[in-house]
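Protein modeling request. Please complete all fields; requests missing the sequence field cannot be processed.
Requester role: graduate student
Desired output: 3D structure, token encoding
Chains: 1
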Amino acid sequence: MIKQKVANSLNKIVEKYLARKGITESLRFNIEVPPKNIDADFAVNAAMLIAKKIKINPSIVAREIADIIIKEMPKLIEKAEVSGAGFINLRIKNEVLYKELLTILKEKDKYGSLPENNKEKIMVEFVSSNPTGPLHIGHGRGAAIGDSLSRVLKHLGYNVTKEYYLNDVGNQMLVLAKSTEIRYRQIKGEKIDFPADHYQGDYIIDIAERLIGEDKDINEIDFRREAVKDILKIIEDDLESFDVEFDNWFSEGKIAAYKDQNGKTEVDKTCEYLLSKGDAYVKDDALWLASTKFGDDKDRILKRSDGRYTYLASDVAYHKNKFGRDFTKLINLWGADHHGYVARVKACIQMLGFNKEVLTVILYQFVSLVRNGRPVAMSTRTGEFITLKSVVDEVGKDACRFFFLLRTPDSQLEFDLELAKKQSRENPVFYVQYVNARCSSIIRGSENSKNVVLDTEKINFNLLNSKEERDLINKLSAFCDTLALSEKTMSPHHFTTYLIELADIYHKFYERCRVLSDDLNLTSARLKLIEGVMIIIRNGLGLLGVSTPDEM
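Delivered output (552 residues):
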């Protein structure tokens, strides 16, 4: 929050300065943490950028702006100095830091949150794996990103709905049904080959064995429905153990199979609408989407000549359904292999008469596993893929979610299984959780001290004036900046980075600033400081779906 206050004031100062120089365009500058040898809280590069525009030495510009900062930001800035090629180094007044710490202590889990904004209705659709088998680790990464992003957006006051789109119709469902039926017949003793392109996993055998146990006649069994039911239960259980809960499960059957009184599905009506507008056309007995009109490299088939709709047709109808539910922003998480699909779907949204910019698609790379420095082989066709459940069972939900969120969604992620199990500072999630446990231990150790001040209003925060203490409060206040950055980039990975950096700063504080001492006033102030650390650690890990144990 402090950084944002500084940025808001600096923007006005820079804008006025540019206006005096005859420049009306806005300027984007950075506010960063300066090098360790600089006695400041923030470093600003605005002067160097301005100097390029007005052709003046950046040091001169920096000194002029530094003088203005001291005059116009007296309640916020204690010192503004120039260094290097024109950086302006700012030191925040201690009173500002103490006030922010007090806010954290008062607001607790509400710190950084905004009032609920019901006008901004956001749908986050993620995972949406076909119900043809258990979730694999790639789905797990999508689940961690989608769920954590939803938590961030909810904390910022948005009305968020998390939805799982269930592709439960189409050719894959026919293959699933046939796979189950063949296993059923094999277990019953029939000599029948199992096709290589059918679903090979043991979970298909489990479904068949359940059906045999129910002693139904084969003609009474709807193999597709039974297989989907069992696999969906597996998926739901896996997501529950991963601390992911959806607000809505949307079946493709609602738009592709359910018919109205006129015998039309939502897919039928959507395609007919596109045809009537001239955005679709018939060629060779197939229905084509005229997507090249909106920048696609070629037109796409909506309905094959044999009457079967494509996945694209269902997706167009599904997005139309989303708009029909009054969502003002749509966020889809797709695997990186769907890259070419983004422009296509956006074109469809535009054809339907909606603003394509309402849709944000987050593409995430899949995960590679390593054990003892060696890659773990994965295969999806043979049924020997690495399931999300197996990884969660091995390393735990917390490590799994934290590791999935260590990088930007579009970055390749190497998941080190052995590292994720280590109980040492090498393991980033353990390192962060240990801060909370250590703070909790210190607070428990202070409970026998009768003279410790507990009333926050009576604490003398002015005693928290060391570099380690100031750095720690500054970092705590950066929680709000991390929220804003996560919203701007649509990625919650910034919180893993932030929490690791906070842990680094806390450990330096812990090594150099004894919390429990004979000085009761200082002890009381430092206890409140580490209480603030616990609040932020818990808030941050909570947004990532990671727990905060008090003992480790």
